[in-house]
Each structure stands twice: as structure tokens, then as C-alpha cells.
Amino acid sequence: MKNEIAKTTRSYGGVRASLRLEGRRRKLIEAGLTAFGTLGYAKASIKGICNLAGLTERYFYESFGSKEELLAAVYQDVVEGLMPLALERLEEPFAKPSEIVCDTLRIYFTAMKEDPRKARMLYIEVLGVSPAIDRAYQEATRRLAGIIVRVMGLAFPGLDWRALSRTIVPTGLTGALTLIAINWILEEFKTPLDDILAQVTFLVDAMDAFLTPKP
Amino acid sequence: MKNEIAKTTRSYGGVRASLRLEGRRRKLIEAGLTAFGTLGYAKASIKGICNLAGLTERYFYESFGSKEELLAAVYQDVVEGLMPLALERLEEPFAKPSEIVCDTLRIYFTAMKEDPRKARMLYIEVLGVSPAIDRAYQEATRRLAGIIVRVMGLAFPGLDWRALSRTIVPTGLTGALTLIAINWILEEFKTPLDDILAQVTFLVDAMDAFLTPKP
DNA sequence: TTTATCTGACAAGTTATATTGTCAGATAAT
DNA sequence: ATTATCTGACAATATAACTTGTCAGATAAA
Predict the structure, then answer these.
(1) Mind giving me the DSSP string for A36-105?
(2) Closest chain B C-alpha to A84 CA, distance in angstroms
(3) What is the distance of C-alpha B103 from the center of its chain?
(4) pTM of the full predicted structure?
(5) Residue B68 CA to C28 C1' — how many Å?
(6) Minimum CA–CA partner of B37 in chain A
(7) Nearest CA in chain A to B121
(8) In whole angstroms, what is the distance from residue A97 CA to residue B187 CA?
(9) Is the CA virtual torsion B155, B174, A158, A106 positive or negative?
(10) Which helix (H) or strand (E) holds A162?
(11) What is the pLDDT of residues A99-115, one digit of tens each?
(12) Helix (H, G, I), strand (E, B) or coil at A11
């Protein structure tokens, strides 16, 4: 209670106080991503994270109240960073359903392979930490399901996705995508991405053939 | 190194040494299930688990080298205990595909609702603890996928499930089932099980209608 | 130039947990 | 009956991490 960090207001090293604080916060989030995504949440220590960030513990508590709070911030950051990537593709035109589906999946899976830390955060480290984190996970799952529904809505405009979105179908599709991703992560991306996408293409094409009535 | 527990060989209280040891081990596994399945793995302490088991720490280290080792044993126990339940149903006859699918799912989901500790163990507490546990999770996932393939093979004998089992389809189905289950757990079983199964029935019937050519 | 504030390194206190050790009384073997 | 072993309760130690505090030197403001 006595010795809280005095709120910094001055400029220092030519940068405003708020910018320095934000910079430290970002460094901690980045370090947290590395620590959680490699060591895992349980084995990552605050001191270790601070070392990675090139900061000292004081600055950790300046921005976060606990390791769990940092985890939540890192998780949010990863989720927020990944969403727009997939959404961009949805603005572009496409020739057939399997194209838009696979393109979106490719973006998603590629992002994970390029940064396995994020992959671990998204699916593995985030579960079972605390009720608060569980809620964040649920919320992120819902958003992912929402994106999937949008993609499927574009791919199969004939279906009533507004109605379907109130069923277990989006959750099921999300789960399918998620577990395929988890297995891919745990086997260290051994299966070529193109193999996975070829199978998806086959399935989506089959669904397309079923839905579009032949004359 | 000096003071290891002398290996017990005598009979005591009318029970053989090996039986007493096995009994303590089982008590610890049961206590671990309770602790991990409610507090969560991270927050469960060895002392707390021993209290739940009505044993002292000495006996913990008699049977397990670490908390993680206990987790692996508990996980195995839960997985082994759940498999035969679902497999039993597969011996019985059924009228239509959605019947066998839903019956199996009902058994599975009911088991989780009746013992949420197991549900949490299966899907939530087990992830991200260590590479060894990750492998156990992968193995269990494969076995679950195997069961799903068997169920689908019964429900849709017209499909070549031997070939399909080498695709992402079993993993996808497993993931769908898993995430639906996780959401159900995290929302504390709010959605009535019959609602979920009704949707599954609808989907499986639709798939059936698609696969059986109309005259 | 002088004063106030910021930074980085580290110390200190606190808590929690794991892990090993001790021991008195209960039980079985001789 | 006496000796050896087993059990349960608890003490002691070690370790690790969190959290707060101190302080010298760097930087900016007056």
C-alpha cells in the first residue's frame, strides 16, 4: 500500500510516459507469448518472462496484477491478431465453395505453423487455468464459430445459415477444425498442409454436389 | 536415498501387502480425480490430494513419483473406464443409423454429466501439462476416433470406413464431438441432452437420406 | 545548476509446496 | 512375550516463486 509505483508522467529518453508504459506492456505480452507458447503456462515464471522482456519485475506489476492476467492479455492479443487475417479473404471473389473454404483454412493453418507459440496459446495453454480464462476461451470459440458460419454462408448461400447458427453445427465445425489443428500442432506439422486442404476440398466439393441439384 | 519406504511384505489388518498398496493407490487415483476435476490440476496440491484420500504424503510417494505421474494415472483410469460403456451398445441391434449414433452419444454424454470430474479430466485439465501427458491425450483421441469410426461403420455400412479412417474425417468428427462436449461442460450442462441428441438425429437422418438412393 | 522523477538491478520478506525424516502406537510374526 | 514391521500423524528441510522494497545512477524539468 505504501510503495506503489508512482505514476509516470514525464517524458523520458524522448518518449512520452504513456508510450513508454504501452511499450513495456507490449514487450511483456510478447515475452508472455514466448514463455507460455514454449514452456507452457504452468512452467513459465514471472521472473523468466521479465527476463525475456528485458524488464524487471516492478514493471510486470505495473501492467499486470498476476501471471493469469498476463495470460488473458496474451490470449486476447493472439485472438484479435488472427481474426482479421481470415476475414480479409472473405471480401475477395471465388469460383467455387471449396476455394473460399480452403483459402480461409490455409490462412489460418499457415498462421499457426509460422508461429507455433500462438497455436499453443489458442488451443492448449488456455484450457483449465481458471474460470475467467475459460470464459475467454468460450467467447473466442464463439467468435471462431461465427467466422466459420460466415465462410460457409458464402460457400453455400443456398442454406439457411441464420437458422443453422443456432444449432450445434457451428460448434461441431469449429471443433473439427480445432482438433485437426491440435493434432497438427502436436505432431509438429508433419502432415503437409496441402494434404489436409486437398481432403477438405474433396469434402466440400462432395457437399456442393449434393446441394446443387443436377438437371 | 537413506530413508526409502521399506517395501511392505507382511499381512496387516487381515489384508495382504500387495492388496493394501493397491488399495492406497486406488484411493489416491480417486482423490486425484476429485482434486483435478474440481480445483484443476494446477491448483491441486499433493497434500490436499492426500487429505482427500485419507492418507499421508508418504503413501503418495510410495505409488507416484510426482503430481504429474498421478495425473497420467488418473487420465488413463478415466479413459479406460469410459470406453467399454460405449462399446457395449455396439453389440445390440438398431433400427436406423441415427439410433445407434444417438444411443452411443447418450451414453457418452450422460457419463460426463453424471461425473463432471471425468469430463474436466478428459478435455480440459489434461492439455498443456507436459509432453508426456500430451502424448497420452493424443493416444486417447486416436482411440476415441477409432470408436467413432466403428459407430459410423455400423450406421453407414455402405461407406468405406477403412479408407475414410485414414483421412481427417475421424479427427474432425472427434473434434466436433469434443467441442460440443466442452461447451456443454463449461455451460454446466444447461442445454438439455435431448435437445442436443435431437439435432444429431436430424443430421444423421439427413445424411442417411442422402446416402440411400431413392427409387 | 539544482531538484524531481524515472529506470534498472537487486535484496528482502512472504507464502506455498514438495520432499524427506521422525516417532509413537498398532499389528503381525516368532 | 518379545521382536519386527506397518501405519498414521506430524516435524523439518529444501526449493521455488511471488510480491514489495531499496537505491544508485540516468534523465528531464525548474
Answers:
(1) HHHT-TTT--HHHHHHHHT--HHHHHHH-SSHHHHHHHHHHHHHHHHHHHHHHHTTS--SSHHHHHHHHH
(2) 23
(3) 17
(4) 0.91
(5) 35
(6) A128
(7) A128
(8) 33
(9) negative
(10) helix A161-164
(11) 999 999 999 999 999 99
(12) coil
